[in-house]
Task: inverse folding
């Protein structure tokens, strides 16, 4: 099977090279048959990499420790669930996993568009093949997962060796979420390759209009959605497993996943400028390019081992390959842009500061600022060593100082932006759209202030969150009321009808609402409490309204680990509320101890208890308890974001009559001249239809 | 002023604000990486900065003193006495011979006062083949995925 796997991998590399070369030849010679064979080769890569992945999984499931990779990341006592996930536990396997996910995307992109966009697709195929060649080079020649153990005998002949037992999976990864978190994140990382390939292809082929944006909108949203889920699952894993009471520490690995998410978010917003107003063409192309490059950088930071060591940023052999590839991508991007820059000339100019355009510009500006700050902070040790010779790292205070104001400004734009009109918004429209939500926000802020909440950022976050939630609710209400009146249905049905008629807009609002929930959850951090103390049986500690009484410590054992477990009873106002069992597990195969956190989660607060070990002075058990308000809102908000994104990908259900139903008012209310007109609006296009038409129908 | 001009002014304000915030955050949290041998050559402010030092825990050097843990880090024959004064229990991987990373400041006697200690057993997750057999490509990479 190892022969089969490595042979399939090698063949995949050759086929990708063929797809690349034949694709270029097909474009140059305009021979349809050559182009077709290049496309088929691009799709065949998928089958071959699948074979390699299946072969490697076969080794994991049969406990065959003749492969170095399997021996290093599995053992026979490991539950089957984790044997599957052990595939991406190390560098070689996760790079193979990257290749495989990319080959799925490439296959789908080529297959679904096989009869469409004949001018564009050959270039898309070439770009995808180019990226595949890089990863398959790593898989085959740099970081091959199919290396076997062998030893030479006296005569110098190598004999295969097979270990009787593997050294086990890193216990930190033995957690159910680790089975889905890496695939999600990698589906995000790899997924951005498709919009990148289309953008590059459109630029090189000088493909007319904004078609590439329409084609890639869903692809981008799929990748963005996976990236969002990946980042949140990672945060949740850190929270539930690492046992330090938080979910985000601006660790390089976390930052690496966040960076493409930020530029991807900027891209999803700024494409609307291009679709509707023909602006920011250069910007959009570069946003996709940067997102892709940040995905590569993210994979590099995560997987090249440069951050896994306690010596953050240690040397790594694979680093040079990634740096080289990034340099090639950058040069290709620059060249493609420079050669075709006239094709990207803007059709329009910014008319007013208070307009949808400028809200998008600000949105992009500060997302980019956030991206830059995070990137700068992450790479600072490397950069400072280059420039000054001494390695300097920056910690969470740096990231928080910059990113909290940015995040709050973004939150404000989330509420304001969607309700501003294109080109220019009148004062009346501002007042009509924002007076009530703003009042609601301020009132809730005042109430919180009266109850003693004085943290500035948390208060701002609350005010803005209520404001945004109310603007979103008002949008649904206004639209639904019109439909309810006209079609004689109740308001709830009308909300459904409204949403399905413009899924992109209302799905977007739901995503925004999910983000509001996440923001509220994060703002809870301002009120975190924690206490650490020795806790022998019979002793107790108090945190917030809770008193934790230690009952005893006991031992649990199985094949995989031995564990020491604390039994804690939690009292609230003198009444027993629950039992918590934080543990410390010693894993037999890897000889490592890990903490198993006990969390009692409610919408208002999490009680998070860690059995931290024994005190070095007294040898008494130490318990660290945290009270983290509102954390659950983050995970719930994540679910809402995913649902909203899914909704925005469904095609609109649009009855013909809506198109001519509302003519006196524009859908965003601001272009209508008539004062005192009905404030109600419907999701139909008004006077600016000629500008807006592009957004309808397609995708 | 046209929309474009106002936008540029607004952007400039935002960018300047963010840069100043970034600078404040940077001065609050910057930490220098040094090797043990570099420490003796530091002078003035460079010696008072917050820093990170790594090395191996000298065998037999760990001693629990009231309220703190003393040990010696060594690297390339150079020694650094360290006092850990943090509140968190030391990691289980912290034992004789382990690779450790300490974060804190040097005191006037040249002793390193650490608030944070991270440790990792040397080559913990690397494949350990049967005697005589060598992995063709030792698998590296541990820690977070």
Result:
């Amino acid at each position: 099977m190892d022969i089969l796997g490595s042979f399939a991998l090698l063949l995949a590399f050759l086929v990708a090279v063929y797809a690349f070369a034949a694709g270029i030849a097909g474009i140059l010679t305009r021979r349809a048959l050559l182009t077709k064979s290049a496309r088929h080769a691009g799709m065949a890569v998928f089958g071959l990499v699948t074979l390699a992945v299946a072969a490697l999984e076969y080794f994991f499931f049969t406990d065959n420790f003749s492969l170095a990779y399997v021996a290093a990341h599995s053992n026979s006592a490991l539950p089957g669930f984790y044997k599957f996930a052990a595939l991406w536990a190390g560098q070689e396997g996760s790079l193979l996993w990257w290749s495989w996910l990319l080959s799925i995307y490439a296959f789908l992109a080529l297959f679904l568009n096989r009869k469409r966009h004949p001018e564009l697709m050959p270039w898309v195929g070439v770009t995808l093949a180019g990226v595949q060649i890089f990863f398959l080079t790593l898989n085959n020649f740099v970081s091959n997962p199919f290396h076997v153990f062998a030893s030479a005998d006296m005569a110098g002949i190598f004999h295969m060796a097979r270990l009787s037992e593997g050294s086990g999976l890193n216990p930190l990864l033995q957690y159910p979420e680790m089975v889905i978190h890496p695939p999600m994140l990698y589906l995000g990382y790899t997924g951005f390759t498709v919009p990148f390939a289309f953008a590059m292809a459109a630029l090189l082929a000088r493909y007319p209009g904004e078609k590439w944006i329409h084609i890639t909108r869903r692809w981008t949203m799929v990748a963005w959605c996976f990236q969002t889920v990946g980042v949140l699952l990672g945060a949740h894993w850190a929270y539930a497993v690492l046992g330090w009471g938080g979910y985000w520490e601006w660790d390089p690995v976390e930052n690496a996943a966040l960076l493409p998410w930020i530029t991807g978010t900027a891209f999803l917003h700024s494409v609307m400028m291009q679709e509707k107003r023909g602006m920011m063409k250069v910007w959009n192309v570069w946003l996709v390019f940067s997102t892709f490059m940040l995905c590569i950088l993210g994979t590099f930071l995560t997987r090249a081992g440069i951050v896994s060591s306690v010596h953050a940023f240690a040397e790594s052999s694979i680093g040079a390959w990634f740096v080289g590839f990034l340099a090639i991508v950058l040069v290709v991007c620059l060249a493609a842009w420079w050669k075709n820059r006239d094709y990207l000339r803007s059709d329009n100019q910014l008319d007013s500061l208070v307009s949808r355009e400028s809200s998008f510009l600000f949105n992009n500006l500060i997302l980019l600022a956030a991206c830059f700050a995070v990137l700068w902070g992450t790479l600072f040790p490397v950069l400072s060593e280059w420039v000054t010779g001494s390695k300097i790292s920056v910690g969470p205070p740096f990231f928080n100082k910059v990113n909290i104001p940015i995040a709050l400004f973004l939150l404000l734009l989330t509420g304001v932006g969607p309700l501003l009109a294109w080109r220019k918004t009148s004062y009346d429209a501002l007042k009509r759209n924002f007076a009530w939500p703003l009042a609601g926000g301020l009132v809730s802020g005042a109430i919180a202030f009266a109850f003693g909440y004085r943290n500035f950022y948390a208060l701002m976050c609350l005010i803005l969150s209520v404001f945004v939630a109310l603007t979103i609710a008002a949008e649904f209400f206004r639209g639904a009321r019109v439909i309810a009146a006209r079609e004689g249905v109740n308001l709830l049905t009308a909300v459904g009808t409204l949403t399905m008629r413009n899924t992109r807009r209302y799905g977007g609002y739901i995503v925004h609402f999910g983000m509001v929930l996440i923001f509220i959850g994060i703002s809870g951090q301002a009120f975190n409490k924690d206490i650490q103390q020795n806790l022998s049986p019979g002793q107790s500690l108090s945190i917030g309204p809770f008193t934790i009484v230690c009952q005893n410590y006991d031992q649990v054992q199985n094949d995989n680990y031995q564990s020491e477990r604390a039994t804690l009873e939690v009292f609230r106002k003198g009444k027993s509320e629950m039992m918590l069992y934080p543990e410390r597990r010693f894993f037999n195969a890897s000889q490592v101890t890990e903490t198993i956190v006990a969390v009692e989660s409610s919408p208002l607060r999490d009680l998070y208890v860690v059995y931290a070990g024994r005190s070095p002075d007294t040898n008494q058990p130490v318990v660290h308890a945290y009270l983290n308000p509102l954390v659950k809102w983050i995970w719930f908000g994540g679910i809402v974001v995913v649902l909203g994104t899914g909704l925005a990908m469904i095609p609109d259900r649009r009855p013909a009559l809506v198109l001519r139903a509302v003519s006196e008012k524009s859908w965003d209310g601001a272009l209508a001249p008539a004062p005192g007109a009905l404030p109600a609006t419907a999701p139909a296009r008004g006077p600016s239809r000629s500008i807006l038409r592009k957004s309808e129908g397609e995708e | 002023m046209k929309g474009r001009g106002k936008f540029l002014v607004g952007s400039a304000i935002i960018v300047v604000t963010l840069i100043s915030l970034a600078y404040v955050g940077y001065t609050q949290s910057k930490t220098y990486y040094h090797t043990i041998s570099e420490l003796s050559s530091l002078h003035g402010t460079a010696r008072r900065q917050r820093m990170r030092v790594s090395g191996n825990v000298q065998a037999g050097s760990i001693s629990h003193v009231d309220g703190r843990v003393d040990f010696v880090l060594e690297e390339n024959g150079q020694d650094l006495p360290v006092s850990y004064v943090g509140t968190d229990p030391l990691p289980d991987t912290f034992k004789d011979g382990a690779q450790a990373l300490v974060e804190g400041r040097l005191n006037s006697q040249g002793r390193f006062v650490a608030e944070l200690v991270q440790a990792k057993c040397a080559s913990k997750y690397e494949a350990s083949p049967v005697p005589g057999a060598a992995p063709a490509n030792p698998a590296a990479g541990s820690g977070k995925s």
